[in-house]
């Protein structure tokens, strides 16, 4: 399975964890047999098709629905006024699914047509006529930042309180700066240490650049889709592609004014989320179902998902760094400007914090601005803010090394953050593996042989770090009659984590993986787990599973102790049996224990383990990447010849899956570096609104990826494991940009590094 | 709701338990909005229609399926040979759903037709031609008991091992008697104490009678129905009307040779079970689904359910009792012969044990025989064996009182069992409420005014006791974001117990009932609970819910203690808040605690209570009933004018539901007494095979029922509650028979006491 990987897992004598196994849901997925939310067909279900705005900013003068209603099978056309959602004080897209009076981005849903069939709904949607009065729009990020830029919303109507709210937010965060912030700025952050100007005065070299990243779409295989079904007693069941079941339950209950126990969210198998499915369509679909009293399926087509979901934000990052002659970094000054689209919520704080956190700078000043524009609001995308920050800072470190004529890896080793260093949020890093990852790459043949390279080939390296999310979680572990165990959690599985949880429980219980089944169940009966995101599921839910399985094991041993008339300390559980140590003939099987505790007249309590975790120490994880590229000077094409991804994963529960996660992350990072961008014209119209225009890599475009694991255990993680999902996407853009510089001496400051951009840069140097 | 009831609940200051509330599923049910298993329609689902045997015992010579297969929409005709079930060593109907080579009861399924529609399957089933060679059948119970009776199965073929097995069983139980047992006897029990013949020599009066009870059907509103759906990875989901989800999972997994974690049983809302739905069609439906790889719905029509389910067994009970002149009982001799139908499993042990347990007899000898006949095998029916035993013994106690010229209630009080008395299983009764129930009835106006009665009116009383079932169980209790709680269990709700569990959790948590939701979930994620039967669900699962809610409350207080910087002992939880005692301003709401423990970065573990129970002390419950009847000497009709049901319920969690249970039980007891019987002719053909012939009461036929509760707490029950389901059916037949005797001096020894039988008895006395 992983023949060509040198994963070197540290199995430490473990029998289940640390060994590569296939995903429990793999067969079902590759055979096309799994059922996603979009595959559901409930009796009486209506299909919903949205009508999308053709303007980035306009007043809605009239919505003509007569023609649509005449289409056979069209049941209803619903506009914002009819949707039974509670909108008060809501600042989120999911609570405002339909434009009211005013459209505020191109592609915004204005109405929705419900049909007995998808075809009827689609025909109806095509016949809904919306009359608009165009309004000035704030599209370009830097123009939107200007004090005299058009406001993203008119002051009257449904967005009336926005400006007040903006200032209220800022008041809290930076009272003194309130007066000077332009009207479309919705958040402002500031990190500072030392005296940055004094720092630059110490510098032997200073490099200064401005970096630009576009809006990028998460490009999950499965677009967002929700089926909402009202129940006869006023509640709702919501089947969703979301990665955040409990959060969707809260959203729907709040939006509909229902108690939460009236809403059941079934997290269906997720066809990719990457942060983009933290909840978007659920209240909308639920509102439609409530309105018509029938099940409603509301799903985006690919183009709709590109137009009207929640992509990663575009940004502009100005970075100036200085180093002393001895290579120590002395000053960093940065300004990050994030395009949050039409609602606040871009990861500007996190980007600013991370930008200043990988290395020790005695003096820094980092400022972040979040700017509203008439574009779709930004959402999370795998390591939100980190890919952007790393592109900027890691390009600059490379430039510093070049200016100092230093080995860029050595320079990083000299300055990299280690345990105890304060990051810009003024919290000390715990034990992290950045240094070990750098050292591991330093020993790697790809780095060792970096001098051996062909014409226009280059080697680039870059760092990516992720603080790791935390959220309390509970898991359950039930003994079954046949001596197997069932683990229950409330997660959505985006990444194969179910298989990891299976291995974790099997290890604790001394069983084979197939003797443990993991069920991730709906919000009616699941123990709590947060959204699957932030690289926290294995860490936090895995820790809960360890405790649940330990609890179950303890109960097993207690029953066995009574049954075998032995002390629990003298017993051992392995291979489905509890044995008295040294007396293998005195034993009782798990099946017998199940029957003693789960049958008519049984005298023992059922074995039912519960474990909870509330980890409060972050388990940050770092990745260091290396790429070897060849640039075609005639076409501007960059070919990635080889890629090495070193990552500290704490402990690889299922090395195959860890490698799979890293492959996926690297591939997405290469998308940022070379291919992907949502291109808007000056009116705010999306030009790359289909997969014909928005370039996703095919398998043939992905280089061989050599995954190298470092295992610095997380103290609270299961068997030391850390989250692994986020880091592998982070260094991609900088790694490729640095390799291109090494190949042809051109510093890429805007990604994707398309042939067009590269050729322009090459030509501008030639003439 | 209960205006005309004198329930006198002991609320003891409780706020939730002890107060009558509506059932949580009541509205849905009365509005016809609940969906039962029969209402499911899965994509691609086939409909199954059985072909039933026309003989009680015959060899199957040929099954012609050609004509059936030509019906448009018929997909397949399946016989036993094709059904992929593992039959080895199976002695149960559910593992042998289709006759193989030989039919052994009238109505036995011989084949099943699968159709795209129900109509196609039905047309197909009507065209399947089965050629039989009739064999001698054992139909009449006493004839089947004869040493030379026809064997219920030929020795060859699928039932070959039966005879050997029968003797093996008996060998264990009564080695010495092996030689004398006739071939169709499948079980034999024996209870003895003292010297029964010596006992009778002490007697001043002796009465001896033989009592007969017919096979009676549980007559649930919803016939048995199962939908089985294969999943793409070789597992199955089974949606069933069963009252025993985990047991159905075991049956299906064993029958199909699957690990249990490949079978998910969804216990659908049950439209009445009364013991008859402990699993019957599940492996059959699962086998069909596996065979064709499509979902299959297999449900009985009413006539099929009458023909081929598992009704209560018929029996003949000979009882001789003697009392001394002072009224003390000195001797009991009884022989119980139970017709178990075609598979062993009749409740003859329980009937024999109960028959000798209500009163102190110094000397007794009780023998029980279970006899195989060519009739459908017996199943459990509300207090299996107890209604039969009580009819016999309570009629005899009435006859003794008459012979002694004693007040029958006084005589019972003089002799009734109390705590410490040994029952025939040689176990002492724990604290029971039989005496208190008799005393309560003694004070009741219906008894006090018993002398005031019209022409041909009579008053009868009788006792019914039930030992109560026990089974370990687990329950969960989760705090939700809105400060409400969700309780999860693995039960099926037949009786409104969900509402009782809600009240129990609300009481422990100091909340209003509507702030607790109870979900009874499928076997994939449910904590273990046994079948809902044996009057054990409230007792055992209720005890687990108490502990789960207490566990959740403890966790809430621990979080609050840290948050409020107080000691947990100084805190109190009520009305959704934790307050510092004496300092009401220092408080934290459950909603705040939920957010502290279930949100990104939260520092406390989620509140998730778990509670298990493994009660080992039975909580027997007794009922004493009184009926006032009027007998029409011209028509033989018995009219029940009034009915009093006194019952020790331990503690009435939801008095309205307890009363509802007792109303239902009394009504079914009246069915046994006066109306219900499955009549077979001498060839084994069921003559009362539809509700036109099998008499169920209509609402107008049910008398007013005065429910009187006695509350002798069960030490392990939640708030002292005992199971209440079984006792109210038990005394019915004897109560009515004794009232008839009081009215017209006719001793009814065979129920139902139909007009035909009564007239015969009246006439035989007149001439």
Note the topology.
The structure is a homodimer of 767-residue chains.
Chain A: H1 26-30, E1 46-52, E2 58-64, H2 66-69, E3 74-79, E4 102-103, E5 109-115, H3 118-127, E6 129-134, H4 141-144, H5 162-173, E7 185-193, H6 196-202, E8 205-213, E9 225-230, E10 236-240, H7 245-256, E11 263-267, H8 282-292, E12 296-299, H9 302-308, E13 315-323, E14 329-341, H10 348-355, E15 363-372, H11 386-404, H12 408-415, H13 434-443, H14 445-448, E16 457-466, E17 473-479, E18 485-489, H15 497-509, E19 516-520, H16 537-564, E20 571-574, E21 577-580, E22 583-589, H17 590-597, E23 608-613, E24 621-631, E25 638-648, H18 655-675, E26 705-710, H19 732-744, H20 755-766
Parallel strand pairs in A: 1-12, 10-11, 14-15, 18-19, 25-26
Antiparallel strand pairs in A: 1-5, 2-4, 2-6, 3-5, 7-15, 8-13, 9-10, 9-12, 13-14, 16-24, 17-18, 17-23, 20-21, 21-22, 24-25
Helix pairs in contact in A: 7-8, 10-11, 11-19, 15-16, 18-19
């Amino acid at each position: 399975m992983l023949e060509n990987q040198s994963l070197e897992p540290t199995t430490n004598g473990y029998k289940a964890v640390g060994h590569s196994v296939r995903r429990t849901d793999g067969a079902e997925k590759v055979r096309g047999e799994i059922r996603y939310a979009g595959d559901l067909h409930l009796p009486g279900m209506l299909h919903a098709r949205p009508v999308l705005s053709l303007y980035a900013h306009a007043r809605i003068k009239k919505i003509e629905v007569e023609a649509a209603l005449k289409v056979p099978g069209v049941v209803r056309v619903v506009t914002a006024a009819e949707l039974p959602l509670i909108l008060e004080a809501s600042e989120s897209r999911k609570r405002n699914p339909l434009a009211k009076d005013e459209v505020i981005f191109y592609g915004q849903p204005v109405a929705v047509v419900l049909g007995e069939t998808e075809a009827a709904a689609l025909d109806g949607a095509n016949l809904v006529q919306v009359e608009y009065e165009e309004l000035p729009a704030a599209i370009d990020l830097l123009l939107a930042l200007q004090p005299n830029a058009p406001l993203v919303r008119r002051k009257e109507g449904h967005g009336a309180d926005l400006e007040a709210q903006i200032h209220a937010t800022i008041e809290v965060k930076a009272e003194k700066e309130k007066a000077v912030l332009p009207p479309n700025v919705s958040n402002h952050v500031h990190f500072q240490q030392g005296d940055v100007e004094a720092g630059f005065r110490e510098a032997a070299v200073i490099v200064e650049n401005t970096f630009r990243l576009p809006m990028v779409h998460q490009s999950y295989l499965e677009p967002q889709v929700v089926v909402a079904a009202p129940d006869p007693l006023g509640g709702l069941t919501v089947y969703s592609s979301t990665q955040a079941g409990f959060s969707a339950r809260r959203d729907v209950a709040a939006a509909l004014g229902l108690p939460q126990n009236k809403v059941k969210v079934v997290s269906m198998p997720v066809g990719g989320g990457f942060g983009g499915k933290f909840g978007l369509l659920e209240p909308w679909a639920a509102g439609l179902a409530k309105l018509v009293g029938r099940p409603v399926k509301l799903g985006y087509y690919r183009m709709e998902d590109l137009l009207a979901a929640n992509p990663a934000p575009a940004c502009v990052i100005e970075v100036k760094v200085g180093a002393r002659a001895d290579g120590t970094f002395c000053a960093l000054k940065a300004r990050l400007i994030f395009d949050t689209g039409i609602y606040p919520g871009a990861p500007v704080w996190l980007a600013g914090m991370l930008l200043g956190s990988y290395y020790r700078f005695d003096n820094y000043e980092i400022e972040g601005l979040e700017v509203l524009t008439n574009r779709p609001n930004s959402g999370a995308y795998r390591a939100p803010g980190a890919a952007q920050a790393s592109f900027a800072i890691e390009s600059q470190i490379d430039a510093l090394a070049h200016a100092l004529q230093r080995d860029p890896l050595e320079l990083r080793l000299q300055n990299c953050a280690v345990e105890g260093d304060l990051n810009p949020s003024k919290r000390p890093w715990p034990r992290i593996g950045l240094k070990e990852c750098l050292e591991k790459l330093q020993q790697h043949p790809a780095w060792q042989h970096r001098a051996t390279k062909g014409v226009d080939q280059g080697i680039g390296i870059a760092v990516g770090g992720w603080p790791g999310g935390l959220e309390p979680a509970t898991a359950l572990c039930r003994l079954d009659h046949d001596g197997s165990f069932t683990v229950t959690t409330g997660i959505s599985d985006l990444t194969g984590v179910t298989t990891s949880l299976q291995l974790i429980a099997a290890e604790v219980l001394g069983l084979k993986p197939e003797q443990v089944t993991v069920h991730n169940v709906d919000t009616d009966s699941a123990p709590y787990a947060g959204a699957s995101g932030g690289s926290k599921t294995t860490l936090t839910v895995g820790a809960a599973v360890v405790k649940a399985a330990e609890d179950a094991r303890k109960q097993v041993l207690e029953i066995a102790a009574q049954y075998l008339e032995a002390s629990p300390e003298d017993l051992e559980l392995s291979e489905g049996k509890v044995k008295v140590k040294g007396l293998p003939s005195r034993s009782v099987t798990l099946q017998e224990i199940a029957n003693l505790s789960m049958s008519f007249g049984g005298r023992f309590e059922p074995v039912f383990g519960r474990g909870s975790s509330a980890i409060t120490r972050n388990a940050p994880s770092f990745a260091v990447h290396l790429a070897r590229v060849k640039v075609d000077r005639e076409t501007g094409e960059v070919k990635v010849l080889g890629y090495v991804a070193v990552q500290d994963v704490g402990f690889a529960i299922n090395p195959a899956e860890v490698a799979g996660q890293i492959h996926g992350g690297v591939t997405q990072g290469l998308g940022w570096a070379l291919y992907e961008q949502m291109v808007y014209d000056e009116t705010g119209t999306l030009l790359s609104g289909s997969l014909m225009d928005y370039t996703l890599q095919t398998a043939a475009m992905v280089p061989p990826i050599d995954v190298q694991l470092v295992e610095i255990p997380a103290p609270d993680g299961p068997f030391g494991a850390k989250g692994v999902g986020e880091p592998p996407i982070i260094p991609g853009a900088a790694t490729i940009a640095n390799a291109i510089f090494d190949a042809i001496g051109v510093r890429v400051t805007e990604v994707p590094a398309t042939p067009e951009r590269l050729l322009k840069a090459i030509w501008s140097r030639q003439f």
